[in-house]
Amino acid sequence: MTGPTVIATTCPYCGVGCGVDVRISKSGEEVALQNVSGSPEHPANHGRLCIKGSKLAQTQQSQSRLLSPVMDGEEVSWQQAISAVAQGLKHSIAEHGADSVAFYVSGQLLSEDYYVANKLLKGYIGSANIDTNSRLCMSSAVSGYKRAFGADAVPCCYEDLEQTDLLILTGSNAAWTHPVLYQRIERAKAIRPQMKVVVIDPRRTASCESGDLHLALKPGTDVALFNGLLAFLDQHNALDKAYIQAHTSGFESCLDKASDWSVATVAEYCDLAEADVLAFYRCFAASDRAVTAFCMGVNQSSSGTDKVNAIINCHLASGKIGRPGCGPFSLTGQPNAMGGREVGGLATMLAAHLEFQNPEHRDWLQGFWQSPAMAQKPGLTATELVSAMESGQIKALWIMGTNPLVSLPDRSRVERALNNCPLVVVSEVAASNDTLKYAHISLPARPWAEKDGTVTNSERRISRQRAVLPPTGQAKADWQIISQVAQAMGFNGFDYTSPAQIFVEHAQLTALHNQGSRALDLSALTELTEQQYQQLEPVQWPVNSNYPQGCKRLFTDGKFFTDNERARFIALEVREPKQRCSTDFPFVLNSGRIRDQWHTMTRTGNCAELMAHQHSPFVAMHPLDAADLGIEAGQLMVLSSALSNGKVILELQLTQDQRRGELYAPMHWNNEFCSHGSIAHLYRADCDPHSMQPELKHAAVNLSRADFGAYGLLLSRQPLAVPALQKLADYWLKIPLAEGVCYQLASVSDSPKWHQAMAALLPTEQQLASHGQALNCLALDQQRLSWALFTDPTGPIELPLDWLNTELGNQTCDSEALSALLRRSPRQSQGRQICSCFGIGEQAILAAISEGHDSIGKLGQQLGCGTGCGSCKAELSALIDSSARPSVDPDKIIIQEAV
Ligand SMILES: Nc1nc2c(c(=O)[nH]1)N[C@H]1C(S)=C(S)[C@@H](COP(=O)(O)OP(=O)(O)OC[C@H]3O[C@@H](n4cnc5c(=O)[nH]c(N)nc54)[C@H](O)[C@@H]3O)O[C@H]1N2
Ligand SMILES: Nc1nc2c(c(=O)[nH]1)N[C@H]1C(S)=C(S)[C@@H](COP(=O)(O)OP(=O)(O)OC[C@H]3O[C@@H](n4cnc5c(=O)[nH]c(N)nc54)[C@H](O)[C@@H]3O)O[C@H]1N2
Ligand code: SF4
Ligand SMILES: [Mo]
């Protein structure tokens, strides 16, 4: 056994791109991951990690991995699989043309994987039908930046968030989704309390915690709000006329459109108080420096690109760009969404910021690749690919690193489309997910800990991701899989033996005929040796002769990438969201993330510690709306939209953080974890006309109480297979615990037969049962609890999960424990887990508050909670508030002291 080795790599979750130090130990051939910590020297995080990053060691389980290639349900060799994929693609091209083939890739691939996939499809197969899940994520930011700046170039860096006078967080719940950045903002504000933070979000979120002002605007009205700001700047002598004159074009017509909006009309249209709108506008006008950081509340909209340009217009008009503490800052979601934009992972771009629209660019690219073909026009975007599969135009689809059944809108249509596609290949890490069920060929890919390459974060910083563990099973790196298929198709140009070779090729392409004409320029990295690549330090592009050490901030000289080097103002009309409410579907359904889960849960869902904060799929509603409908918290609700009825069932949560008439549901749950948790059924594939990004924050829905006759809670040491669950219950929800699994179950019929069928699950020997109106059964295995089953005809059974988990873990279940279980009378419970870093539950926190530890600081000193990643601070605050003021006027929307 050798001592631990530390490898510096990058976190695979969000676009903050934190540096992670991984400690591994080696014993012979065995390599084990010991722990992870934030890299102190990484400029994105300076040693900090959020809860997802700090639990990385716990989420690298090999038991849930796809370990070998599978074809039509049978394990096959790599050779067979590669040859089948190559033959399948060749057949499709020969029979139906190059455009019958499509790749659907992911912002979670490394740049090297992405580069090779793009090269194969655009340069060798000759089709541009390669799109990425980043289409659902940041394509509106891309279109907005391109319209304004002539290039997809993010002007800002993270330091700008700290150096600004006014930080506007719009459509971003960074406290939960970009936690390390949010902590940087909090700290900056603590040091300079005069720094203002304005949060623009229809919901009151954890990110409002540090906010001076929260504008809970009506969903989809952002363009009006920022148009109004532009008009206000004009009317209050707050324009930077010299900047407009010297560096921009199109201002007059833009202002002309915006001038329709006054503070009063904005307040009415956005459903905000005039005083709040005015406070925001005044603050922007008075601040020398302002950053607008935006995320999915802006991008995932049928007017997403316009929202982005409405923001950029205000920054250009006030000269708040290209200076420290200034700029419109798109926060990227996925770890390598930016890298995908660089190598050309979107169907609407070529590669390395080369454009389809320019014939010279196509020729340069083909010359550089020396490839037999070249896509001549943009390809199909994500939702268009679905339609094209449905209509039979796409005959072969290769999905890599994304789970579209769960993440694309209109799930039933995606199901039909995949059913209609003759060849579906899926490269995956997980053994099972909703998309793999549609795969004819599944290919095992290496996950984060086994992968080697580069990623680019939100501030254009390229960091190395280094393999820390040897590959598990037969898994291969995505770039290897793609290259081997390309070679099997008979293509030269894919004989890579390391990611360094691919990176250097990509860097050379960015330098090709560039000379400052394209923002993305890695010309200083074109000669990297294998060893230099291994040692590459995090660096922000461009990296060229002007900026050999990289470049923090773009547009400092006021020059842009348009023909006349001027930034463009865009004149904007206000448009309504597409899926409109009606009497049948009166509620707006907003969707997004929760603190401790990552996307479709393939990485975080089986980690009990990450499940403890929020263990069931829920729909959040304002208490007064619930009172009107006569429904109560904890009930199971059926959600329906014009597309879908009966497929989505969520637990009702009541909160005054919601506006009236609007609901919020997490995007994460899927058929691996719940029979009815996938909200993708409810969203229509309405897209922004410029970016083709779907409107994933605005569905029109209705909800009604689910009509179940009986409910169950099943506790088991081992997980049950999904088909068994389907046979057992009409509704099921899986909640992984540290010592086993808990299932929530419900059945339409409450016949005694159901209760019997349930009881039959448990081994009869050693079974203990108590009957009343409800059934409580336990089974022991050598005095240790192995199964428990509770049923009830009246409603979902809520028992403290930490208590159940403790009883499952007890080596001997004594008579007191048994009797408590049979009576469903919890012996102890911490309540819901609030602080995941230190595993602190609600009860302990409430007790500490009642003992006088009534501030976040005091709670931290007493219990530790809130002193790790800090993402629970908003919830700590809410608990402190609720203890201090037990009754709050439910109709009052809480706004913090106005700026
Ligand atoms: N914990 C966690 N963190 C993550 C992820 C994860 O899965 N889990 N995923 C990563 C990825 S890929 C992404 S893209 C990011 C997303 O990061 P965010 O965009 O911060 O997260 P979301 O929860 O999707 O949505 C943000 C907010 O937009 C608001 N919103 C909805 N409609 C509107 C509107 O019309 N206007 C405005 N102004 N706001 C609106 C919603 O209420 C929501 O609070 O998170 C990244 N980080
Ligand atoms: N309603 C609603 N829908 C949304 C959103 C929303 O806010 N609301 N947000 C959208 C956004 S912003 C995003 S980014 C998407 C995310 O949605 P998806 O990309 O579909 O979600 P993930 O769970 O991240 O899927 C990644 C898959 O790749 C696998 N994987 C992980 N690492 C690797 C690897 O290295 N190689 C390969 N081949 N596979 C790997 C994982 O196991 C997982 O199955 O969801 C979108 N959908
Ligand atoms: S903030 Fe993002 S990159 Fe950093 S540790 Fe958390 S999930 Fe990972
Ligand atoms: Mo995303």
TrEMBL record:
4Fe-4S Mo/W bis-MGD-type domain span: 4-64
InterPro entries linked to this entry: Asp_de-COase-like_dom_sf (IPR009010), BFD-like_2Fe2S-bd_dom (IPR007419), BFD-like_2Fe2S-bd_dom_sf (IPR041854), CT_Nitrate-R-NapA-like (IPR041957), MoPterin_dinucl-bd_dom (IPR006657), Mopterin_OxRdtase (IPR006656), Mopterin_OxRdtase_4Fe-4S_dom (IPR006963), MopterinOxRdtase_cofactor_BS (IPR027467)
GO MF terms, alphabetically ordered: 4 iron, 4 sulfur cluster binding; metal ion binding; molybdopterin cofactor binding; oxidoreductase activity
Superkingdom of origin: Bacteria
Cofactor (UniProt): Mo-bis(molybdopterin guanine dinucleotide); [4Fe-4S] cluster
Gene Ontology cellular-component terms listed: membrane; oxidoreductase complex
Membrane-traversing stretches: none
Pfam families: Fer2_BFD, Molybdop_Fe4S4, Molybdopterin, Molydop_binding
Gene Ontology biological-process entries: cellular respiration; nitrate assimilation
PROSITE patterns to which the protein is assigned, alphabetical: 4FE4S_MOW_BIS_MGD, MOLYBDOPTERIN_PROK_1
Keywords: 4Fe-4S, Iron, Iron-sulfur, Metal-binding, Molybdenum, Nitrate assimilation, Oxidoreductase
Family membership noted in the UniProt record: Belongs to the prokaryotic molybdopterin-containing oxidoreductase family. NasA/NapA/NarB subfamily.
Protein name: Nitrate reductase
Originating organism: Lacimicrobium alkaliphilum
